[in-house]
Design a protein that fits this description.
alpha+beta, binds 2-oxoglutaric acid
């Protein structure tokens, strides 16, 4: 098993303490009471979202890698939110709602929460929702925009596995992406095939309804939904020049190169990158398999 310690849990935090203890040292933390005064804490559950936004049509994503000439984040299906939520109740666990912009798509939900004052400059135009069914998994990745994230959780439980950017060398990162290899199961790693994973050390955050998880910029995360649930991510973009230029580079250069190569070369580009994920990791660590 991968070495994991539980993410620190606190009830509340002042902005001074949040900045000095967590933001500056880029340390994840679960804050239990940050949503205490939000109407969302009482109101938000699957039925409520269905009532408010059920008629909206959304793209849905599965847990398989995009193949051939399709975009890295091509949706697997589109349907009304209410049909999707009904599928989750019937046991569907592969389709996830991902990065659903509440402000643009269901603005009435924005009345149910406020932006917490904990010292992060949260970007108010992009509160986004993620949904998944019991057993759904989110592949190991870090966010392309390098934002500091507050993941505000509602509904059933979910587990978030967290690894700092310094551990990238053990994570089998796929070139031209922000993800590791799709077939790695971080809960039951195949050390024969992926020996570098033996070096990984991370944290596990077990989220309950109302919890807010701080995910520092560039942190790798792998998520398992224990039950039907959803989270809203609030984000603060990097402001330091180095991180900001990395954000622009990721968005403009890396993403577009991958998009173009997939379009022109197709599946052999994807297969080349998957091979390179293993090759690069083992080469850097001097591992012969
Ligand atoms: O909770 C989820 O389903 C995904 C959240 C996530 O990956 C993110 O906020 O970057």
């Amino acid at each position: 098993m991968i070495e994991l310690s539980p993410t620190e849990r606190i009830k509340t935090v002042t902005s001074e303490n949040f900045i000095s203890r967590y933001k500056e040292s880029q340390k994840p933390v679960i804050i239990e009471q940050l949503t205490k005064d939000w109407p969302a804490r009482e109101k938000w559950n699957v039925e409520y979202i269905k009532k408010v936004a059920g008629e909206n049509i959304v793209p849905l994503y599965d847990s398989k890698p995009s193949t051939d000439r399709k975009h890295q984040h091509a949706p697997a299906a589109r349907m009304k939110i209410k049909s999707y939520l009904d599928l989750l109740h019937q046991g569907e666990n592969d389709l996830r709602m991902f990065f659903y912009n509440i402000l643009a798509e269901a603005p009435q939900l924005t009345e149910d929460f406020s932006y917490p004052d904990i010292g992060l400059k949260l970007f108010k135009k992009l509160p986004v929702l993620f949904f998944g069914g019991k057993g759904a998994k989110v592949q190991m990745h870090y966010d392309i925009d390098l934002a500091d994230i507050l993941l505000c959780h509602f509904g059933g439980k979910k587990r978030v596995y967290l690894f700092p950017p310094e551990q990238t060398k053990y994570i089998y990162r796929v070139p031209f992406s922000f993800s590791s290899l799709f077939d790695i199961d971080y809960e039951n790693p195949d050390y024969e095939k992926y020996p570098a994973l033996r070096n990984l050390k991370g944290e596990i955050a077990e989220l309950d309804h109302g919890d807010v998880l701080y995910i520092p910029s560039g942190y790798w995360h792998y998520i398992v939904y224990e039950d039907i649930s959803f989270s809203m991510a609030l984000r603060a973009f990097p402001r330091k020049p180095k991180a900001f230029s990395k954000l622009i580079y990721n968005l403009v250069v890396v993403r577009n190169i991958d998009g173009l190569m997939r379009k022109f070369i197709g599946q052999s580009w994807n297969e080349r990158n998957e091979r390179m994920a293993t090759f690069n990791t083992h080469k850097k660590l001097g591992i012969n398999v």
